[in-house]
Design a protein that fits this description.
single chain, globular, three-stranded antiparallel sheet, seven-stranded antiparallel sheet, Pnp Oxidase, Chain A, 183 residues, 12 strands, 13% helix, mainly beta
């Protein structure tokens, strides 16, 4: 296989990436949302995840101050909302209202969960690291919910079409094909 050298935006070679909408809030409870494709699970016991947020983002300040966030898993039919939450600033726009989200109280953290999303993971920040031009917020999942009938230890990707960010303004989703390993 012939290859060419990549000298800019090298990390986009790791895309497509599952894309989520993270909710956070001000210390007095005013909610905000941000689209994140740079996140990852870190540990099963305890359940740890990490999200990567640029310090210039409004949500960075909110998460730093409250030390809580919710990872909301959207589906492809929510792509317009994913785009709005990723391209507009919560300092200037009420993204929750513009998207028409139904917010639900979370059970263990202050930021609300988005009802329209297929899953919600409530997280408390246990550590944060400066990593280049972003901050990695490491959160312990203290509560999680998922829509009935789509998860039995893994998502049924024939029922749930995750939003996968390819890069820039391009997205895709899962195919109608599932293969098992163990060849």
């Amino acid at each position: 296989m012939d290859k060419v050298e990549v000298r800019e935006r090298e990390v986009l070679l790791l895309h497509p990436r599952n894309t989520v909408i993270v909710t956070c809030c001000t210390p007095d409870g005013r909610p905000n949302a941000i689209t994140i494709a740079w996140f990852t699970p870190l540990s099963l016991k305890p359940p740890l995840v990490a999200i990567s947020v640029a310090p210039r983002r409004y949500s960075h300040d909110l998460i730093s101050r409250t030390e809580e966030f919710v990872i909301n898993v959207p589906t492809m039919d929510m792509l317009k909302h994913v785009w709005i939450c990723g391209t507009k600033s919560g300092k200037e726009v009420n993204k929750i209202r513009e998207c028409g989200f139904t917010l639900e109280p979370s059970s263990k953290v202050r930021p609300p969960s988005i009802k329209e999303c297929v899953a919600n993971l409530e997280c408390k920040v246990v550590n944060k690291l400066t990593v280049g031009d972003h901050t990695l917020f490491i959160g312990e999942v203290v509560a999680a919910r998922v829509a009935k009938g789509v998860f039995d230890g893994v998502f049924d990707v024939l029922k749930v079409k995750h939003v996968l960010h390819i890069g820039y303004d391009r997205f895709t989703t899962t195919a109608n094909e599932v293969k098992k390993g163990g060849f």
